[in-house]
Write a structure and sequence with these properties.
This protein is an alpha/beta fold. The protein has five helices and five strands. The protein has a five-stranded mixed beta sheet, sandwiched between helices. The longest helix has 29 residues. The protein is elongated and about 80 Å long.
């Protein structure tokens, strides 16, 4: 074999190995739980309230722990009032959380109801939210709030 061909083969193999190592490192990092994945429910609610404050929400209030009609955070932004249900789960969030946000939005007389979670939503939850006009803020949205 020609020496330049051997060099090209060795360099290509090294580049592929480095690329594979980078991919595996990024994949492992994504599987590691974030700080919010390890929080207790009440701590997660306060964490989310602080993220909302940093995003320009005002009058952010964490509701009392029990008897809150499914709403964990009350807030306002640009004249729009929000009732937010927080769910720190280990699995996808279902319809029940959407129903709680819907009922709580009306109970607290807020304009918008939302569910904020560290996970994603089941398809039935997405369909219910669309029909009930409830915002769904999933893990991707939560992570984007952290980055800003």
């Amino acid at each position: 074999m020609d020496t330049p061909i051997i060099i090209v083969i060795v360099v290509s193999a090294a580049a592929m190995a480095a690329s594979a190592a980078l991919y595996l490192r990024q994949r492992a990092r994504r599987r590691r739980p974030e700080e919010f994945d390890l929080m207790e429910g009440r701590d997660f609610e306060h964490y989310c309230a602080e993220l909302l404050r940093r995003r320009g929400f005002q009058e952010v209030e964490v509701t009392k722990g029990s008897g809150d009609y499914g709403i964990d955070i009350l807030a306002e932004k640009d004249g729009v009032t929000y009732a937010v249900q927080c769910k720190r789960y280990a699995a996808p969030v279902g319809v029940k959380a959407v129903q709680e946000a819907y009922a709580g939005r009306d109970y607290y007389d807020r304009m918008v109801g939302a569910v904020l979670t560290n996970q994603y939503f089941t398809q039935p939850a997405v369909e219910a939210a669309r029909r009930l006009k409830i915002l769904l803020w999933d893990r991707g949205y939560l992570e984007s709030m952290m980055e800003e």
